[in-house]
Specification:
Blueprint (H helix, E strand, L loop, with lengths): L23 E4 L15 H4 L2 H14 L4 E5 L2 H4 E2 L2 E2 L2 H13 L2 E7 L14 H19 L5 E5 L2 H9 L12 H22 L4 E7 L2 E3 L8 H11 L2 H7 L10 H4 L1 E5 L5 E3 L20 H12 L3 E6 L6 H17 L4 E6 L20 E5 L5 E5 L1 H14 L36 E8 L4 E7 L4 E5 L6 E7 L1 E6 L2 E6 L3 E4 L5 E4 L6 E7 L6 H4 L6
Parallel strand pairs: 1-2, 1-12, 2-5, 5-6, 6-7, 7-9, 8-10, 9-11, 11-12
Antiparallel strand pairs: 3-4, 13-14, 15-16, 16-23, 17-22, 18-21, 18-23, 19-20, 19-22
Helix pairs in contact: 2-4, 4-5, 5-7, 6-7, 11-12, 12-13
Length: 528
């Protein structure tokens, strides 16, 4: 509990004075790192939040969320030292007009292309950027301002400095990168305070727990060291509890933000046992309420669950778990000031930008004009309302959220393609193995000398993969040799054929998009 009394915990009979106006916050996924493939992520643009911010803010307000984690996006503001703050100014203005509190994420793994964290220019450029953002936000904001200078220093130091997963793609230098980022964060905070002395800081790191694997109690001491020293190192450095020469203080640490997901507890890998993520039902799982109490003992309050959520059908159950644990923490006297649902708008996966892994309170539905329409996930909203009624009744949705009627499709049993192989001596054999609404899985089997004559599908693309043997394929005027394990995309409307010129059988698996249906091959026509 804060000794100054500004964030005192109320009993369950009174409304808690939440830090940001509501217990629940929304977070917009704003990762902007450079990937190992050389691609710059920009999930704010990918989710069209840059275009739909006003309506996104309105949707948050409608469901009782009055504060959001928002993105300034350093790589897209700073071009070789020249700053263009128009995007920040627009978002800050929209936030003011909507009445939302914005917590500005200044560096979410990404930095300008012409910098690297160990360069002499890194800190001065970050300082100039932080000052410029703070000036714009201060001018547009009524009330307190909030900043997260560098998101997840511990995770980023591991991903970018220890295992080379993201820029700067280093290995074995995680400790160095962590300290470089802490220096930059402290300098950035000082720069913000020069512009806005009352600005509040929310530093954010993952809240994780490592466990010894089954049968290895000898590793408990190593696990304890990780949990007690490594997990908290960045916070300790920012707070000046370790290496005070870096310039940290408890004020620099500010509000302590913890990112907590279902995958945040795991067993230590050994040569005999790979790492295994724990389920929260397991006896070894440490409850979130316990971990929050430990953090408050170490740093005091307030604490914020700065990122949390789940994907797909697991969202509602995870939110119920979070509600129960935060409720218990509050009863135990832990100063929890907020829970940020992250992402509030479903966003693409880092590795596959075409895959939107449903994790938001709002999913996205592509429209014919290219717009990503926001769709409230009714099951999640209903649980959110339950949580609000229990912990934050003043901000609860005014009406119950009706459950939509959702039809379920039976699961089609898997097939073993090679179990269906058969051949004819004078022809190819074609079999349809699986039929969906949008795809079919077929099998072509050609004995030695077999030929599939030239044919085409006017509107259907296909992917052929050779499971057994090799063959000559003609696509248009191109002649190709396909061998076992190779795949080929055949465009729509192009004549193609295949010939087995070898002395061994040839088996091709085909995945095909919708084509003119012929009931002779696979029974009744699929639903339109």
């Amino acid at each position: 509990m804060d000794k100054g009394g500004k964030n005192t915990i109320m009993t369950e009979k009174r409304q808690h004075p939440w830090l940001f106006g509501s217990l629940f916050l929304g977070g917009f996924e704003c990762s902007s790192q450079l990937t190992s493939e050389g691609q710059r992520l920009d999930l704010i643009t990918a989710t069209q939040h840059d275009q739909q911010a006003a309506t996104d803010y309105a949707r948050c307000q409608e469901i009782g969320i009055h504060a959001v984690r928002e993105a300034a996006r350093w790589p897209f503001v700073d071009w070789a030292g020249k700053l263009n703050l128009s995007s920040v100014e627009q978002l800050a203005r929209l936030g003011r007009e909507s009445g939302l509190i914005q917590i500005w994420d200044l560096m979410h793994y990404g930095y300008p292309d012409d910098l690297e964290p160990f360069s002499p220019a890194f800190v001065p450029r970050f300082v100039a950027y932080c000052q410029a953002v703070a000036a714009v936000v201060r001018a547009e904001t009524q009330g307190p301002t909030y900043y997260t200078p560098i998101n997840e220093i511990s995770y980023y130091a591991w991903a970018g400095g220890e295992v080379g997963y993201m820029a700067p793609f280093l290995q074995g230098r995680g400790g160095e990168l962590k300290r470089a980022l802490v220096r930059a964060a402290i300098a950035g905070i000082n720069a913000i305070w020069e512009v806005d002395p009352e600005a509040q800081i929310l530093n954010v790191d993952p809240l994780v727990r490592q466990h010894p694997p089954a049968g290895r109690p000898d590793l408990q001491a190593e696990a304890d060291f990780f949990n007690q020293q490594v997990v908290s190192e960045s916070f300790d450095l920012l707070a000046g509890q370790r290496e005070p020469e870096l310039g940290g203080s408890r004020r620099h640490l500010g509000i302590v933000g913890l990112n907590f997901y279902a995958g945040n507890q795991w067993t230590m890998p050994t040569p005999e046992q790979p790492r295994r993520f724990l389920w929260r039902e397991e006896a070894a799982w440490v409850p979130l309420s316990t971990m929050l109490a430990e953090l408050q003992t170490r740093y005091g309050g307030p604490l914020v669950v700065a990122e949390t959520g789940a994907s797909g059908a697991g969202r509602a159950a995870w939110l119920r778990y979070l509600t129960a644990e935060v409720g218990q923490a509050l009863l135990n006297g832990v100063d929890v000031g907020g829970i940020c649902l992250y992402p509030i708008i479903t966003s693409p996966d880092w590795e596959d930008p075409t895959a939107f892994f449903d994790g938001g309170v709002f999913d996205v539905l592509p429209q014919t004009d290219g717009t990503l329409r926001r769709v409230l996930v009714h099951e999640v909203a209903a649980v959110l309302r339950e949580a609000q009624l229990e912990l934050d009744p003043g901000n609860a949705l005014s009406l119950p959220v009706a459950e939509p009627e959702v039809g379920t499709r039976p699961l089609v049993p898997p097939v073993q393609s090679l179990d269906h192989v058969r051949f004819k001596s004078d022809n190819f054999v074609y079999q349809t193995l699986l039929v969906g609404e949008q795809l079919t899985l077929d099998l072509y089997c050609l004995a030695p000398g077999g030929v599939l004559p030239p044919h085409r599908y006017a509107k259907s693309e296909q992917v052929w993969t050779v499971l057994v043997g090799s063959g000559l394929v003609w696509v248009g005027s191109e002649e190709l040799t396909l061998v076992q394990g190779s795949s080929l995309l055949i465009p729509a409307g192009v004549y193609h054929m295949v010939s087995n010129v070898s002395t061994q059988p040839l088996v091709i698996q085909r995945v095909c998009s919708p084509k003119a249906w012929d009931a002779r091959f696979a029974g009744a026509q699929p639903a339109e």
